[in-house]
Structures are given as C-alpha cells and as structure tokens.
Amino acid sequence: MDSILEYLFNNHDKLLYGLAGICLLVELTVIGLSGPLLFIAIGSALTGALVSLGLISTWEMELLFVGLFSFLSALILWKPLKHFQGAKAVADNSSDMIGQIVPVSETVTINGGSIRFSGINWNARLADDASVESITAGTRAMITGMDGNTAVIDQLPPK
After folding, report:
1. Among 49, 61, 94, 147, which residue has the fewest nearby CB atoms (within 10 Å)?
2. Is 71 found in the same domain as 10?
3. For residue 90, is it within any domain?
C-alpha cells in the first residue's frame, strides 16, 4: 500500500487523473450529472495534462489550476447542461387536490387568502402566472399546485 501512495505522490499527474476519474464516476452514478463534481473532474483532468506536459511542477500551482479550470468549466458549461436536464416546468401531481375546483372562502391574492376543500378552510394564494389580481370570496377557483400546506389557485378557465 505504501508503494501505491508513494507512486501517486511522486506522479501528481496520475493522482490528478485518478481524482478526475473518481469525481466523474461519483457524479454519474450518485449525483446524476447535476453537481459540482463534474467540474472538479474536468479541472483535475486538464491540470493532470499540464503536469504530464511538464508545464506545472509544484503542488500549489496544481491546486490553483484545478480550482481555476473547475471554475471556468462551470462558468462555460452550466447553462448548456441545465438545458439538457429537461423541461423547465414539470406538471405538479404531488397532491390529489391539484385540479380540484373549490369555493373561495376569503378573497385570495398573491399574498394569501383561503379556500374551502373537503370541509376544511385551507390557506391559499394566487399562482405566480395567475391571470387576475385577486379572486373574491364566494367565487370558484381551480387548485393548480401546492406550496407546502398552501394551495396555489387560479381562476377557472373559460368554458
């Protein structure tokens, strides 16, 4: 075991390639290509290449370049990778209340109000993309989402 550690300490480029491989493996298997380990893997691999070429020789410079390359790769790749992660708006089906038409018991605005569902008054607020400023008491509305224990509602769509 000592000979492996001694080898890695004497061959920093191999150590950096190993670090890059481990980071990439953990990123792909555990995190799912959405975490910072991808950028650390890129920074380690690029720094390992510079060490192999003899352009960097001290561990302080290696550490600096790993950080620099990691930051630059995050800066360059963040938006394109976010684009590949799927649709920005995913349909919320986390509650059986979503899609239900309910009476408004207290005027609902973007800041709050209440609705009545299943015999209970629930805190409610208007959806961020609601087509109205408020929904008055006595009107019926549709639950479009849940935010904790607060129902997110919007006016009924036209028939």
Report:
1. 94
2. yes
3. no
Q: Please give the model's pTM, rounded to 2 decimal places.
A: 0.52
101: left (phi over 0), alpha (psi -120 to 50) or beta: beta
- The C-alpha angle with vertex 133 and arms to 130 and 137, in degrees rounded to 5, equals 100
**How many separate domains does the chain show?**
2
Q: What CA–CA distances, in Å, run from 24 to 36, 74, 82, 89, 144? A: 10, 14, 17, 28, 39
Amino acid at 46: L
Is residue 33 within 8 Å of residue 27, measured between CB atoms?
Answer: yes
Are residues 52 and 12 both part of a single domain? Answer: yes
Domain span at residue 55 reads 2-83
| Residue 106, domain CATH | 2.40.50.140
Phi/psi of residue 134, nearest 5 degrees: -160, 160
Tell whether 55 and 23 lie within a shared domain: yes
The residue to which tokens 């959806």 are assigned: 127
pLDDT tens-digit map of 78-110: 888 777 766 655 555 667 788 888 999 999 998
Whose CA is closest to 46, among 26, 20, 28, 82? 20
